[in-house]
Amino acid sequence: MERLFLAGQMARRRDPSQDPPSLHATLDAGRICLGCVGGYTAPFTGEVLDCTLPCTGSKDRACQIIHHPSAWNDALLQGRYELRERARTRPELKLASVATSASLNDLEKLLKVATLLYILIKKHHCLTAVDVDIGRLKVYDALLCDALRDNEHIPSVTLLDFTPNRDAFKPFFSVIPSLKNLRHFRYTTHAEVCKAHLGALESTLEKTNTLESLHIPGLWIYDMDSTELLTAIARYASLRELTLTFSFLEHAFDDCSDEFSEYLKNSDTLTTLSL
User: Fold this and answer.
1) What does DSSP say about strands 31-33 and 40-41: parallel, antiparallel, or unpaired?
2) Three-point CA angle 110, 153, 231, nearest 5°
3) CA angle 124, 214, 264 (to 5 degrees)
4) How far apart are CA 209 and CA 18, in angstroms?
5) Domain of residue 140, CATH code
6) What is the dihedral angle through the alpha carbons of 147, 150, 154, 155, rounded to the nearest 10 degrees?
7) Model pTM?
């Protein structure tokens, strides 16, 4: 497979002498390119993945990759991801994050996983839900950002932010508003919420108009003003489901709290609120 350079995706690099020799061809001048996965053989099943096959999913027919789940998951599990069938009438797939406490440090394997994820997201419209575990693919998170940018078929995205890097979420939040069909968005983090988190969420609401559900459980605000975010939520006309912590209400000005209460009482679309 020809290597495709993704211009503009700048990566923070270590000293090249510290990188495995096999990675020197894939990190060039600070730009990230797709790894070579042509004829890729899954490590445990021994099956060969044909990544050039098109998506054949339709309203009444499952995509052909559903017939080879073990091979795909054999490869993806090296980065703690897997494909799952969604419980829907129409045959659909979800890219799910698999919980792990293991440290994933083999950059060569992570590049291959990131490349496979890139191909799945770019080519397969049967993929309708994506979990992104921020930081799991290390520098190759940039490939996921590129794959998601301007996507037209994925309605559901979950961002899981458990990395110690407090800025790692920012590239993904810059991409989320570009998704053309985004209807369900969930973000969760164990980090202490900062102004950058609130600003990113506000920007997402300001730049999109298709969301039907917004879930931000576990985000607790300490000594910050949540007025602008609550105002943005209250003015978002299409939300049907909303999850947030009570701390958002505790840290808003009184007039905003009153406006939000009126929104909850009078909204014709919101059907589910979880605090």
Assistant:
1) unpaired
2) 95
3) 150
4) 45
5) 3.80.10
6) 140
7) 0.84
CB atoms within 10 A of CB 2: 7
Checking DSSP bridges between strand 213-215 and strand 127-133, what pairing results, if any? unpaired
> Rounded to whole angstroms, what are the CA distances from 98 to 18, 102, 127, 130, 141?
29, 11, 17, 12, 16
Instruction: State the sign of the Cα–Cα–Cα–Cα dihedral 270, 243, 216, 116.
Output: negative
**How high is the mean pLDDT in each 10-residue block of the chain (275 residues)?**
34 37 35 70 80 86 84 90 81 89 82 93 94 94 95 96 90 96 94 87 94 92 84 93 89 80 91 93
Residue 82 is classified by DSSP as: E
Range of the domain at 228: 5-274
Structural domain count of the chain: 1
Token pair of 216 as six digits: 């931000």
Q: How far apart are CA 242 and CA 248, in angstroms?
A: 12
